[in-house]
Known about the structure:
The chain has 109 residues and is mostly beta strands. It is built from no helices and seven strands.
Amino acid sequence: MTQDIKPRIRLPSQIKPGEVIEVKTLVTHDMESGHRRDAAGKLMPRKILNKMTCAYNGRTVFEASLEPAIAANPYIAFFLKATESGTLEFAWTDDDGAVHRARQAIKVG
């Protein structure tokens, strides 16, 4: 199973004040559903990212609940009205409670 969680975030290179932009994220994770069996026939334990959030300058602007049917290396995109420069803070929560974080500066102007 992937131990090294690698989030990737993509924003437009130029953003005007008040513009609605698309925020694209991709995170490296196996997303084991708990329904597959290993070579010995034992069920592999479930280990998925079950929640993703994004805060814009400290205010939550996006939140998603993820279920076992989502693919490995989940890609999530959403739209955001960019009002000011600052920071987008992302968090992906695993079944075991581990939180994987990433930050991306956003420059408006």
